[in-house]
Write a structure and sequence with these properties.
InterPro entries: Ankyrin_rpt (IPR002110), Ankyrin_rpt-contain_sf (IPR036770). By secondary structure, this protein is mostly helical. The chain is built from eight helices and no strands. The chain has helices at 2-23, 28-37, 43-50, 53-61, 75-81, 85-93, 108-115, 118-125. α3 (43-50) runs antiparallel to α4 (53-61), α4 (53-61) packs parallel to α6 (85-93) and α7 (108-115) runs antiparallel to α8.
């Protein structure tokens, strides 16, 4: 009898979780944010992904490393990837290195080109 109750409880728990999981649907905005958050490894990376200019400025003011690689991307690479051109200007003004490469040999300009981010491409090409 005890085994039957345990098995019944497990079956109910599994079926409830499966039905709840099938009802979970992310909005387009949530899906975009989820992809962006996958890159966010530090508070600065997170702020760049969010496009949060004020927090980017605060973090830089507090001395964060603007060239820190997290998940093989620098904040400048992320800003280029997501066409956050205002943040690109802030990062560059505060020492971000546009010639920095990740393990695959990509620079921020390459990420902007991948994303067809015309404003970011224009800013980064003018640095050559």
């Amino acid at each position: 009898m005890k085994k039957s109750l345990i098995i019944l409880a497990m079956v109910l728990a599994i079926s409830t979780n499966a039905s709840e999981a099938s009802n979970l649907k992310l909005s387009v905005k949530d899906q975009t944010n989820y992809r962006a958050y996958a890159y966010a490894g530090s508070p600065l990376h997170y702020a760049v992904c969010e496009g949060d200019i004020e927090n980017v400025k605060k973090l830089i003011k507090y001395g964060v490393n603007v060239n820190l690689l997290s998940n093989d991307m620098s904040p400048l690479m992320l800003a280029a990837r997501f066409n956050k051109f205002e943040i690109i200007r802030i990062l560059l003004a505060n020492g971000a290195d546009p010639s920095m490469e990740n393990e695959k040999g990509y620079k921020a300009l390459k990420f902007a080109e991948f994303a067809k981010a015309s404003e970011s491409i224009a800013i980064l090409e003018n640095l050559k």
